[in-house]
Amino acid sequence: MTLAKVFEGLVGAGAPVEFTAYDGSRAGLLDADLRVDVKSPYALSYLVHSPGALGLARAYVAGHLDTHGDMYTLLREMTQLMDSMTVRDRLRLLTGVIDDPLLRGAVSRRLEPPPQEVRTGRTSWWRHTKRRDAKAISHHYDVSNTFYEWVLGPSMAYTCACYPHEGATLEEAQFHKFDLVAKKLALKPGMRLLDVGCGWGGMVMHAAREYGARALGVTLSKQQAEWAQKAIAEAGLSDLAEVRHLDYRDVPEGDFDAISSIGLTEHIGKANLPAYFGFLHGRLKPGGRMLNHCITRQDNAQPSIRKGGFINRYVFPDGELEGPGLIQSEMNDAGFEIRHQENLREHYARTLEGWCRNLDAHWDEAVAEVGEGTARVWRLYMAGCRLGFELNWIQLHQVLGVKLDDRGEAGMPLRPDWGV
C-alpha cells in the first residue's frame, strides 16, 4: 500500500482532498483545491504516537506534513475524522506501512514534539502563580509586535470584534467593539477606567480619545506595554492614557469609575475566579460598572482545561475556559449585580477569518520574522478557532456587572442605552 493510500484509507476515499507523499504516490480527489503533502515518514510517527488532532498538528508544525489550499476549509473537512481516529485505525495505519522498512523505522521511533510546544509540567497547584502566569503570557504575546501588526491590522486589537453590519470591515468592527464596551460602561470625560489585560492598549486609547476618560491599562507582556506606551505618545494621549507592564493583582490604585477586562479571564483559572472578581470589585467605586469580555465554552460538563490539546500546548499555556453561567455566578458572588450579557460567538468567527486573511497576505514576511514553525502554529490555531466558534464548540460572552452603592442603587437606565 502506498503512503498516500494509507492516508486516504484513514479519511475515506470520498474526502475532497488530494494526498501526495514523498514516495511519489497520490490518492484522494486528484487536483483538488485542498491537498495534504506527506513530506517525511516521520509524519506517521506523530500521527501514531499522538492522540487525535495533536499528532496532525505536530507533524504540520514540524514541517513533516504540508497543506495547500485554505487551512480553515481543510480543517473543516478533516478535523472530525482525525479526532475520531480509533486504536483500530492506528493499527490499520501501521499495517499499511509494515512492509516498508523506512516507514517501519520512522513509526517505531517516538519523536520529540516541535520546539514551539510548551512544557508546563503536571504541577497543577503551581498554575497561575504570578511567575508562571508571566511566562505563559510571554510565550503567547511576546512573539513579535511586527508579526502582530501584520495579523491584527492597524487596530492591534487581539480580541473578538463586534460587527455592526454585514459589510463592516475588521477595523470598523474593532472600533465598534471598543465603543460598545465604552457605552456599556457609560464612560464620560474625566472618569477613571482600569483596563486589565489591556494588550496593545486599544481600549485604553479609545477611552481616552473618544470619551476623554483617564485610562490605565496593565499587561504582563513587556512587548505589549512598550508598544502601547509608544502608540499613546504618538497619538498625543499621554495626559489621559497609560499602559504599565504589571500584573493586575499589583495595581495599587483604587476607586475606579469603571473597569474593563477584555480577553484576560481565560488566563485566570477557575480556582482563582473568586479572588479575581473580588479584586476588581474592590477597585471599583460604588455605582461603577465592570465589563467582562472572554471566551467561554458551552457548559461546565467537561474539564475547563485540555492539558494535552494543541491550544494548551502551543498557544495558551494554562488557559482555562468556563461556561458563561459560571462566569456570571462568580461575578455575582463577588458582589456585582449582573445587568446584561450577550454572546458574540459569530462575531469571533468573522474576526478570526480576518486575521487568517491577514496572515496569509503577509505569510513570507511572517515566516521571516518569527520562523516557519511559529507561523504554522498561528495559521493552524486561528483557522481551528474560527471553526470552533462556527460549530459552537466555544463562545464569546460579554457580561456587564455593577457595584451597587450604599443605598442599593445601580444607576443603570431602565433599558440598555448602548445601541447594537
UniProtKB/TrEMBL annotation:
Query: Which keywords, in A-to-Z order, does the entry hold?
Result: Lipid metabolism, Methyltransferase, S-adenosyl-L-methionine, Transferase
GO molecular-function term, one example from the UniProt record: methyltransferase activity
Q: Which family does it belong to?
A: Belongs to the CFA/CMAS family.
**SUPFAM superfamilies according to UniProt:** S-adenosyl-L-methionine-dependent methyltransferases
Under CDD domains, the record lists: AdoMet_MTases (cd02440)
Cite the active-site annotation: C385
Name by which UniProt lists this protein: Cyclopropane-fatty-acyl-phospholipid synthase
Q: Which PANTHER family match?
A: CYCLOPROPANE-FATTY-ACYL-PHOSPHOLIPID SYNTHASE
Q: Does the keyword Methyltransferase apply?
A: yes
User: Which Gene Ontology BP terms does the record give?
Assistant: lipid biosynthetic process; methylation
